[in-house]
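Let us work through a complete example step by step.
Step 1: write down the sequence.
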Amino acid sequence: MAQVPQTFFDALAVRTWCGLALRSLGRAREDIDAINVYPVADGDTGTNLYLTLESAATAVEAVFAGYETGRAEPSLADAVRAMAHGALIGARGNSGTILAQLLRGMAQVLAGPDDAARIDGPGLRLALRRAADSARQAVAHPVEGTVLTVASAAAEAAEGAEGDCGTVARAAYEGARAALAATPGQLAVLERAGVVDAGGRGLVTVLGALVEAFTGEAVREAPYRGDAVREAPYGEDAVRAPYGEDLFREAPYREAALRDACQAAEADSGDVHARVESRSGAGPYASGTGLRASDGGLGASGAGRESDAGLDASDAGLCESDSGRCEPGLGADAAGTGGPAFEVIYLLEADDAAVARLRTRLDALGDSLVVVGGDGLWNVHVHVDDAGAAVEAGVEAGRPYRIRITHFGLGDAHTGRERPPRERAQRAVVAVVPGEGLAGLYTEAGATTVLARPGEPPASGELVQAVRRAHAREVVLLPNDAELRHTAAAAAEQARTEGIRVALIPTRSAVQGIAALAVHEPGRRFDEDVVQMTSAAGATRYAEVVVAEHQSWTTAGICQAGDVLGLIDGDVAVIGADVTATARIVLDRMLQAGGELVTLVVGDEAPETVAAHLEARVRESYLAVDTAVYRGGRQGALLLIGVE
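Step 2: predict the structure and record it as tokens.
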């Protein structure tokens, strides 16, 4: 559907741009991955750009969601700052980190000291120039023929344009496109491969979405031809959208399009016969090629605990691979002498002076150094042989967290060697869990888990990585959250394009996931197992007890900040002042319809006596009902209740 043209850059334009850019990157992702040869030919530039933009778009949506119906929309400053912050904390890879800095540079101008409600064409010109300059400054050793060249060309072309935002955006897009076509002549590795720069191509895609946001017209162009470039249109008619044609046919976040895609994904659990060719063993982030020392998730013990230095227990410079443990200092031996063996990325809380020292130290350790951010929060990216030393440098500078260490691996761009692929399991379960306690429970039951901390839902790319990590021919995916159903549908669709048979069971709560996992039988036929798990989840009513963060209208009346809310099947059913009393009312209402088993998942912030009180209530009043109690850890809700 065509977008409504906008003359000025305001908060709505930011939202529209992010949505369109995410759709466009989703469609171009595979093509961009296919031409990724610099700085490392690991075939993940398109994926990294998508995940970075997805984080930015999610942050913008969160800002809009924070404004209740009837109130004014967020300001331009609110929207662009959220966009920049989301990109910063979600940046992946070299190109994703640079994209985050480009968006941050734009935000510095668009937010402005006067907090203007909207920006016109001249303001957009300044924003594009600031973006290009700040991105170049963030790279330790800028190289021409890369995304930096394309960004500078876009800014220069925009400076020569007179008119509204649409005119400026189109000039920037055309300038970037021309610069991208010239990149093979500037960088020998591109010329040898017969391709344009992958990061630059991604930026052209993002700028094309900016044109569409202002003009309402989708850009179309011929592909950039080359030996490694597919003979496929670039843009609206790209080779099949990797996250499903229906999902992004309309602007993202549109309810109908997402619902249709979800239903299609649930209906299609069959095999996909065509596989995507791997460029690094099993694709970017695949088990054995993309290892993550920490994603705020589980370590070997099943729980990610933070140390005094601000690191997870698994962040001590070590990383797990299929073949064992990769330790600091072993990178050169593992990857040969063709280049650094590890990509290290982390968020860092530190002051400017400490970051300046960190740049110098990391520059001496490796290459592809990019440090972006400011105001005390930074995203650090570097390629090194000694991953531990890179992490230690961050510890000395400040507080690093969300540390990701990717081993370019045996069979990567540096060595050309391959190792025998690990045998796939027949079937696996991948589940999103809201707390460390449940993560341990699910892991003990054999599931591959993705931890969703309060306020930090996983992106589709993280779910795809978990599916790959499960390393199975058949995967049952449990999102365990109504808000993640769409994200899970997108992840399932991408995994199917890689030849993995995926069934999405739309569980809305972790207690429904527990019920599904309890009847899981790997020895059954896949379809039968999915039917049984779906039936068990569907027969489980779910509830949660939470504390209201602000005053709002609910289905049970008006609640005030600090009130205790009891939600049954997603709707507020009880508003109370006491956690235990509210939980008891919720439980009684649920058991009025009958039940055989009550599952209680208690969060860290719940009263110590609430579980015992509810167990006693069940024993005294519901003689035929059993109770199971689990500790959920930091799960957001005070209490989760399931009744089967």
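Step 3: interpret the result. The radius of gyration is 25 Å.
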